[in-house]
């Protein structure tokens, strides 16, 4: 095996066997499992929990017409609510609610004009579900009563209650249709998050590795055996492959658990996130931009890591990396909300932001293909330049020891290897 | 296969780490590279290895500059020892040897030989951080020589070892040298250099002050040491013509004299004064030469 392969294999195997790799992999698998079963779990805690004790409401209605209708119609909206007509004086009923005989009290008055006036009393006003359902039902009853007064037929009544068809569309050609957007949003959202976490995580891994080799002083032997540029890229590729391994594991687990929960996938949270028909295009761009982002920041992290003498100083040195990824992610999340904003468009071409921001635009808009390609090419050029520059810094940096961790060291590192 | 350092200068900003250094180290020789702390030894070694570029001048091994293309021919023991603390001895040494172009099987066999030779075969599967500092150094040494380099550079190979282990390592260095390896090493311990090397170079502030075979250096130094042990006070000899320095010892004095002739004058002077137990004329030690040439106040 050649030297490059040796370092690559060692990096990959060491990291694969490390506890942190095992831990993050398992934690994320757990998170994916929870996420995939979210609706089941929410059912357990939400409606499932209330199933046993239904919401008993005392209804005080002088005439009784509204209360009767309410008793029947509420079942169509929420079968957990039970309506009990009471006739006693207000104080007496109030006491019954306080004693826990009823959960709430609703007073209903039908006015001359056909308007229903209603007040809802309860010990706590936390459960808005119930009051919303009551309000909705009362609204329907009021409309029906009004319709009865006008002697409308059943068909006419149906027309009256017909829901509006409301669709969003855009004149802009670059915009995706509403259906496409809601489909894209979820995938883009999740993938930005994955890109952010993994690029940050793996870049840190590289920098830590370099700093550890340097602080244990094994670096001087390594650098006398293998050219720095080979070392850097063997490490980056090794950790990159590790990252792909981890992402594949997560991907397979995620896909499997979605397949497993296919029955529950209809509607609800899944439709909002647009998983029902994941866009292959978005996914492919996501992978490309993940790789670009990773190589860019890993190269930066590797040569910054070569400048510190102790792993303790690493965090400070890696500030630019954390900051750039942070800003990129912020812009990307902003871009999900408003993908056509000018500064989002501009940022999508700036190499350090484009992996995240251009990906957002590709995912959210129908951008012309030359735009992502330009961004990819620009980022690629930046990686090559950074790699070339980084290898020079690395070569000097790994031989330099001191308490400094400032950018002054950068000049010094370049000077050590330079011919004057 | 000669290592040639020609008019090499290394500037680091304002300061000059190595100043116009020229050395020729013939094939299969054992060469001592001496200097005070910060004299530029490590910088020179790094330039020889091609880790850093010289500001001017050239360094060639067998007519070619040393680089990654011939890194398998070169062995290096850096002054700052460093191994992967969490890695097992075997994995580590084999990995480093493979990076120097050695085959895995061969490296494993050689490692067993060396571990046994250094009386530590049980360390094969231990993690480096579990070993004592001295034992880590043995492992580091093995890592530097396992791939049978033809040029071996040892930066302070014996520092931090107990006398038994120093002997063990010295024997190993001698054996490797006998098998035809050109060896360059630096040390602060002059007696090690005197014992092992044919020729030396003493550098001071980046430039060589003494260079050549040890015997010639001693001869050309001129000054001799005179050891006297007598039953009367000898410190008055401080002012005697030709005496450079007087060093008192428990059992007498050591005088540094300008030349052999002075010793006879002194003998005449003290002969009648009383009983003389010892009177011997000795070659100057490398230590004396170093102190004289480098001028540091090590006494």
From TrEMBL, chain A:
Domain ABC-2 type transporter transmembrane: 19-391
Compartmental location: Cell membrane
Mode of membrane association: Multi-pass membrane protein
Membrane-spanning residues: 21-42, 187-211, 232-253, 283-305, 317-337, 343-360, 372-391
Cellular component, GO annotation: plasma membrane
Keywords (A to Z) from UniProt: Cell membrane, Membrane, Transmembrane, Transmembrane helix
GO MF, one annotated term: ABC-type transporter activity
Protein name: ABC-2 type transporter transmembrane domain-containing protein
UniProtKB/TrEMBL annotation, chain B:
Entry-linked Gene3D superfamilies: P-loop containing nucleotide triphosphate hydrolases (3.40.50.300)
Assigned keywords, A-Z: ATP-binding, Nucleotide-binding, Transport
Protein name, as recorded: ABC transporter
Hydrolase recorded as keyword: no
Annotated PANTHER family: ABC TRANSPORTER ATP-BINDING PROTEIN, ABC TRANSPORTER ATP-BINDING PROTEIN NATA
A GO molecular-function annotation: ATP binding
Presence of the UniProt keyword Transport in the record: yes
Pfam family, one: ABC_tran
Sequence similarity: Belongs to the ABC transporter superfamily.
Phylogenetic classification of the source organism: Bacteria, Bacillati, Bacillota, Bacilli, Bacillales
Domain annotation ABC transporter: ranges: 3-230
Species for this entry: Jeotgalibacillus soli
InterPro entries: AAA+_ATPase, ABC_transporter-like_ATP-bd, ABC_transporter-like_CS, ABC_transporter_ATP-binding, DrrA1/2-like_C, P-loop_NTPase
